[in-house]
């Protein structure tokens, strides 16, 4: 259970406090990080300028003139130990994918499926949004069952265009900007989770769910 995880608190420079729930990705650690980030946002702790959840950790960026690291760590420990509140309903997103990626056949072969069977297995159930970030609007979704887990590519692709659907390490990711990647390219989508002219500029949040459908 996520409420049994005791996080490690680490300074990150002179304006950051990292709350790390595990060394490696697990469902419990990810849910704990997402839940803590929501509580930290709601608490509005004095001096905290930004709350940034990641796969198994949360970064609090703070102003040292408003709160010290020691005082902030105390606030964090209180939030961690506080009784959990009922989670707000998370949004569901339907993402249509053209399964036409350069690595699709290779990935299907790695998991010993035909391309059609791989697509069906990939789309069988909604995936939870584990984290966003890395690049503007980038979305990590997971986790796939063990039978669909493949390693990252051995060679980094110099650029994946915006809207590329990536697959590796039990996760599917969606790019919203052009980036280099070591993940397998399995398709493309018109969906974008980044609009710099909008407020907020992203629509998908950690904890949401994504249902992939073939188009």
Summary tags:
215 residues; 13 strands; alpha+beta; 30% strand; seven-stranded mixed beta sheet; Gyrase A, domain 2; Cyclophilin; 2 domains
Give the termini separation.
37 Å
What is the rounded Rg? 18 Å
Q: In the CATH scheme, what's the topology name of the largest domain?
A: Cyclophilin
Total helical segments: 4
What best-fitting shape do the alpha-carbon axes yield? elongated
N-to-C order of helices and strands = EEHEEHEHHEEEEEEEE
CATH superfamily of the largest domain: Cyclophilin-like
Strand order across the biggest sheet? 5-13-6-7-10-9-12
Strand content: 25-35%
SSE blueprint:
Layout: E1 8-11, E2 16-20, H1 27-43, E3 48-53, E4 57-62, H2 69-81, E5 92-97, H3 104-110, H4 115-122, E6 127-132, E7 139-142, E8 157-160, E9 164-168, E10 171-174, E11 179-181, E12 184-188, E13 209-214
Parallel strand pairs: 5-13
Antiparallel strand pairs: 1-2, 2-4, 3-4, 6-7, 6-13, 7-10, 8-11, 9-10, 9-12
Helix pairs in contact: 3-4
């Amino acid at each position: 259970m996520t409420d049994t995880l005791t996080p490690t608190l680490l300074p990150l420079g002179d304006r950051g406090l990292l709350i790390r729930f595990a060394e490696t990705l697990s469902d419990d650690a990810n849910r704990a990080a997402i839940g803590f980030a929501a509580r930290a946002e709601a608490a509005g702790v004095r001096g905290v300028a930004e709350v940034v959840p990641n796969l198994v950790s949360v970064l609090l960026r703070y102003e040292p003139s408003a709160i010290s690291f020691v005082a902030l760590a105390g606030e964090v420990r209180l939030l961690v130990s506080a009784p959990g509140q009922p989670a707000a309903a998370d949004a569901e997103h339907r993402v249509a994918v053209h399964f036409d990626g350069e690595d699709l056949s290779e990935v299907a072969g790695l998991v010993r499926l035909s391309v059609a069977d791989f697509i069906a297995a990939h789309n069988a159930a909604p995936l939870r949004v584990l984290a966003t970030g890395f690049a503007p609007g980038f979305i990590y979704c997971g986790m796939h069952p063990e039978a669909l887990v493949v390693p990252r590519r051995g060679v980094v692709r110099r650029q994946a265009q915006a809207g590329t659907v990536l697959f590796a390490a039990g996760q599917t990711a969606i790019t919203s900007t052009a980036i280099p990647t070591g993940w397998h390219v399995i398709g493309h989508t018109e969906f974008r989770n980044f609009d710099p002219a909008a407020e907020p500029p992203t629509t998908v949040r950690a904890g949401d769910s994504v249902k992939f459908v073939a188009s």
